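User: what does the whole thing look like in 3D?
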Amino acid sequence: MNKLLEKKNPAKHIKSFGFLALLLLLPVIFTAVDFTYGITISCFVAIYVIAVSGIDIVFGYCGQISMGHAAFYAVGAYGSALLSSKLNIPIIISMFIAPVIAAILGALLAYPASKLVFHFLSLATIAFGEITYQLILQSPGGITGNAVGLATKKVNLFGFAFNTSFRFYYLALAFVLLLLAAKTNLVSSRVGRAFVAIRENTHAAEGMGVNARKYKVIAFATSAFFTAVAGSMYAHFVGYISPDTFTNKQSVLFITMLLFGGTASKPGPIIGAIAVLLLNEALRSMENMQMLVYGFLLLIVILLLPGGIFGMIKDLFYKYTHRGGKENAKS
Amino acid sequence: MKNSMFVKVATFALALVLAFGLVACGETPPSSTAPAGGATSEAGAAGATGAEFVIGNPQPLTGVNAQVGAAANKGAALAVKIINENGGFNGVPVRLINYDDQGSPEEAVKIATKMVEDDKVDAVLGSLTSTCMLAAGQVYEDAGVLTFGTGTSPTWMLQGWEYVFRACPNNGVSMPLLVSKMKEMGIETVGVFRGLDDAAKSAAETFVEECDKMGVEVLTVESYTDGDTDYSGQIAKIISKNPDVVLCSTNGPTMAIFAKQLRQLGYQGLAFNREALPADTVEVAGSAADHWVFMYPYITYETPEDAFDPDIKEFLELFQEEYGEMPFHDCAYRSWDAIMVMAEAARIAGTNDVDAMRDAVVEISNFKALGGVMDFSAGNGEGLNTLNSYIVLDGKYEDFDAWYAAGNYEALKNAG
Amino acid sequence: MTMFMQVFVSGLVIGCVYGLIALGYSLIYKASGMMSFVQGDLLTVGAFLGYTFYGLWKIPVAISFVMVFILMVLLGFGIERGIINRLVKKKTLPIYIVLATIAVSYILQNGAMYIWGSNMLTFPRLFSANSIKIFGVGVQPEALFCIVVSLIAMVILHIFMKYTKYGTAMRAASMDPMAARSCGINVSVSTGLTWGIAAAMASLAGMLIGPVYGVFTTLGATIGRKGFSSAVMGGYGNMYGAIVGGIILGLMETFTSGYISSAYKDLFAYIILLLFLFVKPTGIFNERAIME
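Assistant: Here's the predicted 3D structure for the full assembly of 1039 residues, as structure tokens:
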């Protein structure tokens, strides 16, 4: 038995190493087949994976909806851009400070909001998102550049500038691996279990001594941190930010990606971000029909694939192994 | 159970097939204007090889500015069609690829990268959304793609981009002219109503600065957010300050609603607009659009016969023949002119090499287009520096200077 | 005084529109415990349909309005039966239902653009007079019409819900579906009908503001979102609260932009929404449905 396990682990390691190697080689492959646009899309995928993983913590695991995460995305983007340009903080550090600010804001929002049920929580978060948007659009002293937006600098680490999609991809990949590892650790810890308990039944969780408000605040703050990291990455990748990016539509996009991929899992946000971004690319040639088709597809997924794509794969896998097991038993 | 699983699998498969089918279709977007000769192969972006000249055209086709984007596309498609019928650029057919940037900077950057790296476009037309230009302009500049923006905001032309030009009006130029016209008319006070988006806001800011310089007092500046439909509070405030005239710097459907509500709340004086009042706005606003004044190179008409300028008349006839309707927004002129300037640059350069064309654009100093004489010799990338003044009377556009010279402004003032 | 009256009347007009939208939210919430994000876009669709019948095909106003109502009730009913109810039956998380309504809102807004185009359309005027004088202030007759008709619609809805058999059945179905079912009430039809009536309310708002604002695809989007603020302010789920909340919000917005500053007019609606949710989630009418 022990031997079997030992044998299995290296195989798994080989698999993940292979996967990692593929991720590392991806830009090279794209360059080789003369599809460098694929690298740009991969960078956006990385940004969205982090943002959506953030939503997954608060929604997938803790069961608290947020329809205003564009606000945290904005805090990350504008926070990092302003800290680095006005206070001359190195970007790699400002990309960390801005998400901390977002996390504090998230906690401040979650504290009074934690008593609201999901419908009204969604309204509260929408209102929070709108207020943040309005404040960027008409900022005190015009610090955000208002509607004109801000030009942002590229990340520069020890003299190495991440100024192309090719280079930025590796920075983004490092962020993704780091944050996904952090997420996995968090959700499998005691805190993560408390999240799930609150999601399943808040009253029961409180009966068992889980301080629901405390954990909801933690979930919101962590979630805001993740999404803000994505926002800061966006700012320094695109090189320009303006309020148009941080509207309600963006919050809905995050949620859509999560639902597409599947909630409360590691692959869900990844699959969701990839699926929606690819779909977006595929629909590009449809010009003004794009949003219409997007609406239909979203509806179809909600109606027919409530577990998202990952949920469906899991179902299929389960059926397959289940049937396989039966057949084995028979023979 | 088995059934529902089948449905799930089928749905997913369908979505996938659809997605990949569309990706495959994306190779030859259905919107691309096929070369008239049809001599070149449709498949594959052959832009860089010189077999065809590819122009990417990102415009907002959904959202608040959807109608304006649609007008821009029609003007562009018509220009490309005419050019191809006359042998393209130096004998090479021109192909247009349309995209919807949704007015979103993120989409604009993605599309710009896709056009540069995947479609390998030679030139870009648009977007008319200034934040999209601000976001994507650097991509075009880095790639050395000849770009003509179709928006009127001063901001994106001030970035110092060498490959980015404009062949349509610049609010940075029109605002000072408007203020000096007001000064000439003896106008002393003005109330301003403006949007928060870049184009509307920066035009209004230039206007206010210019007023300060020239001694016209700005009594109040009121604003609104996109999507809002009720401006009565702002208007009541403007009216309560009793200004000589009102300046409106907005876009989208706002203009018509503002005009209606302005008249409804009892303001009967002249209203100045930062850009042309489009035909559909005049129609929706009805009598409320009367006594609106603006300075602009061109306007939209109900029939080709209404146009005074022979070039515009010819364009409108072509447009009507092609689409069975009249352009309702001047963006159709803007994209037509931009493509015609590209054609002129290709002619001067004698080659479709983008760098040679870029240098040729700067040489253009006396090229007659719909907006008037294009003159890029100032070196700031701006081509259109002359404007006409118009006033709306009984739903028609009239020459404002003639109206003013006839003493009508005094009469209106005394009547009010 | 003139300015005050003008601001007051305009505030009432937009307030009534918010009220009609919020009324739809409250009806739906009462009947099915759901939150719908479609109301704003139903307003747009209603305005487009009204434009088609009355403006394009020159069908008399009254008949056009009735035709739009019928179509919109069917549309609302269809959304509930075809999408919402399916999800409820599958016992999916309630948030999926919210997202389904967002998807429908995308479809309606962009479908409207596909059908009617992206141009701004003129909803023909309902009255020939340009303005009528009230307390010496010129008011657009359409504006008055909007206020009067929305108030009448609210009264009719009240009578319908309180004094007719169908209304009583609907109220019963929303209060206790099980008990209602045992009394022989068809709960599912009743819920569908509530969505239909909410859709009709939205389309009424659309046709009332069509002549004032013109008709375009994003007409209802912001109004729909601000309607939430009205509904929460009044007490989510409370019909009278929705109307009162709508009118208060409309007046507050116009008076703020008229007398204080227009810069933060939009911020206002959302700050009110947050404040009420955090401080007094049961709203002015102390509706208890909202607490966990």
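In plain terms: Chain C touches chain A at residues 29, 35, 83, 86-87, 90, 92-96, 98-100, 102-107, 109-111, 113-114, 118, 225, 228-229, 232, 236, 263-264, 266-267, 270-271, 273-274, 277-278, 281, 290-292 (CB under 8 Å). The beta strands of chain C are 132-134, 137-139.
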